Amino acid sequence: MAAPARKTDIGPPHYDKFLHPVIKENYGKWKYHEVVKPGVLVHVSETGAKIFTVRAASPRLLSSTTLLLICDLADKYCGGFLRFTSRNNIEFMLDNDANIDPLINELKQNNIPVGGTKNSISNIVHTQGWVHCHSAATDASGLVKVVMDDLFEYFEEMTLPHKVKIAVACCLNMCGAVHCSDIAILGVHRRPPKIDHNNVKNMCEIPSTVASCPTAAIRPTYVDGKPSVVIDEDRCMFCGNCFSVCPAMPIADPLNDGVSIWVGGKVSNARTQPTFTKLAIPYLPNNPPRWTEVTEAIKKIVTLYAQDATKYERVGEWIERIGWARFFDLTGFAFTKEHIDDFKYAGLSYRRTTQIKF
Question: For residue 327, what are the contacts with CB-CB under 8 A and spacing of at least 6?
């Protein structure tokens, strides 16, 4: 039974209003797609119709000037049809392949790179960072800029063993895809929130604050005869959830906030099952504007992967093949106590065989 027609304007408009005519006419009839050259794809329908895609990079946080430029290029070359991917790539949809090279040339003239297809590094998906987020431990936008400055050639060329997806999240609440990306940059707090006991009763609802903690580290108490809360620091995982509901518990700490690096995640079922990322570096300092320690670590991982991985291996598959001990040897990253999973349910995922070297 067909769904009833919409009777109000509540909610987003239906997506088919924004489909390119070729896509709308061939909906459900696509036969195959292929990458024509870096940054350019073609989808071919059973009817023989073709739609071309030019993929360009975007910093996600865009000025109105850049947005107007992108819209002008879309109007000029593809009838105004474009879309943004979940990793912030801009995709221009064309039905005339004669417009592909002129569009690419004009994009490059405006310092907008084209690429991110097939065995390359796609645009980095990231969170808000210091620009907007109240619980950020690092700056997502700044990190994305400096990391891609160092990995620029891997976006424009398809020279890696397989695709590499990088994600940045500015705290462990992970609004980004750091749990399932090949390489992940995660902002970390290393100290519990500082409680402003004088203002807890004025700014916070104590039951909600207690309930906001995922590890039950917060409990109600009285301080100087006033209702407040106390933190069990052994239970605190520095997520900042409590600060979201109680402004009297700020967690930002310029001296101790920093960045961790994670590797090996993927969503794909190809060859191996989907995997979560695993810790590579527990802490690197926040050193804006270039974050030298972070960019050097990421470039080292990508360079070693490019040199040592076999064709079609994702980063995590490469590490599993050579072994984590070999990975730490090659990268020179220190193995520390933070790499040992002491979460109370971690035993369920431990290797419990004596053949731990295989």
Answer: 280, 319
